[in-house]
Amino acid sequence: MSITEKMEDVDSISLSAPVFAGRDEPVGAINISTLKSRFSKLQAERKLAVDLIASAREASQVVSR
Question: Least enclosed by CB within 10 Å: which of 2, 23, 44, 56?
């Protein structure tokens, strides 16, 4: 998972997690973007990362079938 604070849009935070087919083949990513006025970087990681990673794992399982 990665967290990015956008340089162009100073009020934006983006969290991304990869989606894999099989164990090692990246095929995409799931992204959540939010406003810094709603979440600090730490709050976004604590509140959104768990669900983001779970969603990416589930998507990986689906595309690996």
Answer: 23
Instruction: Name the token pair of 37.
Output: 């006025």
Bridge partner residues of 14 (DSSP) = 4, 33
**Which SS3 state, helix, strand or coil, does residue 39 take?**
coil
In terms of residues, how long is the chain? 65
Give the tens place of pLDDT for each residue, 12-43: 899 999 999 988 899 999 999 988 889 988 99
Residue 59 C-beta-side C-alpha neighbours within 13 Å: 16
Alpha carbon distance 48, 3 (integer Å): 11
